[in-house]
Amino acid sequence: FGNHVCRNRHLGQRLAVGPLEGEALSGQMRVGVARLSGEEGLITARPVLYGGMRLTVSAPMNQLLAPWRQGVLLILLVMLAFITLAFAAASVIHWQFARQLQTAAEVERAKATLDRALDAMADAFLLCDAKDRIVAWNGRYLEMYPWLDGVLKVGAPFEALLRPGAIR
User: What are the residues whose beta carbons fall under 8 Å from the beta carbon of 165, sequence distance 6 or more?
Assistant: First the structure.
């Protein structure tokens, strides 16, 4: 090899297993015992043109599977991160939904309190919003203006109350 010095930690080392014979020399990759380490691995061997010589390639499974195992570990970590993120998102959504239900219940209680207060009033009462749409009224208002029964609706414009009153 010219000036190139070949350095291999296995040079001069005895093989961990005996010579390969028969079917083992077919050139097919198979699971067997790695030639140098003696561990389970992949091995292939075939005779070469020179009698009595064989070309053998083997590698331990641990060495072959190490990159795959690192990839699996990374995939598992990413999967765990996504599962954790999904649980966190579900928790936040559940918390928001519970708060929304609580707020809706509080609004309903406040509306019921307002309705009871309006019904307890001796005077007629009609509440409109900034755009002159009807928001609420009490029973006394309908007693004073019975012709508005059926016309009086939440969200109806105040002008809708004027037409039936003008016809009377």
Answer: 145, 147, 148
CA separation for the pair 156, 130 (Å, rounded): 13
Instruction: Give dist(CA 30, CA 52) in Å, integer.
Output: 22
Quick one: the chain helix, strand, coil %, rounded to 5?
50, 15, 35
Cα separation, 98 vs 107, whole angstroms: 14
Q: What are phi and psi of 108, to 5 degrees?
A: -65, -40
- Element holding 78 (H helix, E strand): helix 61-120
79-135 pLDDT tens trace = 999 999 999 999 999 999 999 999 999 999 999 998 899 889 999 999 999 999 999
pTM of the model: 0.46
* Cα–Cα distance measured from residue 84 to residue 77, given in angstroms and rounded to the nearest whole number: 10
CB distance 15 to 35 below 8 Å: yes
Which long-range contacts link 159-164 to residues 24+ away (Cβ below 8 Å)? 159/132, 161/126, 161/134
Question: Any idea how long the chain is?
Answer: 168
Contact in structure between 42 and 65 (CB atoms under 8 Å): no
Q: Give the Cα separation of 76 and 70 in Å (integer).
A: 10
Q: Report yes or no: 59 and 41 within 8 Å, Cβ to Cβ.
A: yes
